[in-house]
Amino acid sequence: MFFQQNQYLWVAGIMNRLKLLVAIFLLIVMLANFFSQAYALQLSTDNEVYSEGQPLLVYGRALPDEPVIIRLFAPDGTIAQFNQITADSNGDFSHTLIKWPNATANYPYGTYSVEAIATKENGTSQIVDVKFASSSSLIPVPIQRVIITQVFAPQTAAVNQPFRVFVQVTSDGQLVAGSPSKLLGGSHIHLPSGDIVNLSNSLKTLHPGLYYTDFTPPQEGTYVFHIVVDFQRTTSHGSAATLVLKQDITGISNQIRKLNSVLDSTTQELDKLKAEIQGFGDVLNSSQRSITQANQNINRSVTSMSESVQNVEAASGQFNSLFLPVVALIAIIIALQITILARRR
Question: Which of 271, 314, 321, 322 is 20 to 30 A from 331, comparing alpha carbons?
Answer without folding.
Answer: 314
